[in-house]
Q: What sequence folds into this?
């Protein structure tokens, strides 16, 4: 039996939906929330080592817990103390412990029964995970890059209250990276590549296949999204036909479409139209940032917000230009 099942993906690609569908299964322990930056943070504070140093573990433990949705979970502080006690005992004779064992200690304290643990990373990197956790399996979510990046834009800028932030421009590279990782690992016996569209349209069939891949039985609860066994709604939960599937990419500008269509790894998973080159146009970028381009947008009426949004548009435009330039150079290698 595998110790960990990791759900991975570049964000806005159905990781939360899959996480919610697996949550209620009686054979699994599912960590609530998205532990997105846990491993990157661990590498950072432990000098790029997969070992957790005793001087760093409290900081890393707090970081893990802070990334759990609904930090008001009953008894969370008690769980934290229980974990600390266990880890302190291990450090009586050791200066560091393996990150896999560290995570196992946390999960064993979080749940009353020892089962395979499911963790939603919402991170597109797979290769390093398999090296750090040789006893894991990975469920890697992908999505049509046009709708995925459009969804990322709406997530950040649907309402004109967010002026700053580079996650939308960065999402082009994350999209490249998720398909590159999927291509590298698609024949790996411990990795399952899942298209979000298939999970939305054929939920029962897909979730059965996924559970079979990780070695567990299907239960009726797996057709409902839950968190710690309690019903929740996700943005794409229980959409059962093609008409309800989101095909919108109206927030993407001509330059966005061109860049996406150039990503070489996408063709192995999706048929994307090849768009002609279009320069990154500041006027279009500015009008979109104000909410005048794209569906499901709200426009600015407050003069102060309008001014602030206009100033940030200049910064975000040049950031977008540079990040896309770097991506296109990387894509040629």
A:
């Amino acid at each position: 039996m595998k110790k960990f099942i990791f759900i991975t993906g570049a964000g806005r690609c159905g990781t939360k939906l899959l996480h919610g569908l697996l949550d209620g299964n009686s054979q699994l322990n599912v960590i609530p929330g998205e532990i997105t930056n846990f491993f990157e943070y661990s590498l950072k504070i432990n000098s790029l080592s997969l070992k957790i140093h005793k001087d760093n573990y409290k900081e890393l433990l707090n970081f893990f817990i802070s990334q759990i949705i609904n930090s008001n979970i009953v008894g969370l502080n008690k769980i934290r103390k229980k974990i600390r006690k266990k880890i302190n005992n291990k450090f009586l004779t050791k200066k560091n412990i393996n990150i896999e064992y560290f995570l196992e200690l946390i999960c064993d304290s979080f749940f009353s029964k020892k089962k395979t643990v499911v963790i939603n990373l919402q991170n597109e990197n797979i290769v390093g995970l398999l090296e750090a956790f040789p006893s894991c399996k990975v469920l890697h979510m992908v999505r049509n890059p046009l709708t995925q990046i459009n969804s990322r834009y709406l997530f950040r800028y649907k309402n004109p209250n967010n002026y700053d932030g580079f996650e939308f421009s960065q999402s082009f590279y994350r999209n490249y990276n998720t398909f590159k990782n999927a291509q590298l690992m698609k024949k790996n016996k411990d990795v399952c590549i899942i298209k979000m569209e298939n999970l939305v349209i054929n939920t029962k069939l897909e979730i059965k296949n996924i559970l079979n891949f990780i070695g567990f039985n299907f239960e009726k609860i797996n057709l409902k999204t839950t968190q710690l066994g309690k019903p929740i709604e996700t943005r794409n939960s229980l959409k059962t036909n093609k008409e309800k599937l989101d095909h919108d990419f109206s927030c993407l500008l001509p330059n966005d479409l061109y860049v996406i269509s150039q990503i070489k790894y996408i063709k192995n998973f999706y048929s994307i139209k090849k768009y002609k080159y279009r320069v990154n146009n500041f006027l279009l970028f500015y009008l979109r940032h104000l909410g005048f381009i794209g569906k499901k947008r709200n426009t600015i009426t407050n003069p102060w917000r309008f001014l602030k949004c206009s100033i940030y548009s200049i910064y975000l435009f040049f950031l977008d230009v540079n990040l896309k330039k770097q991506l296109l150079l990387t894509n040629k290698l």
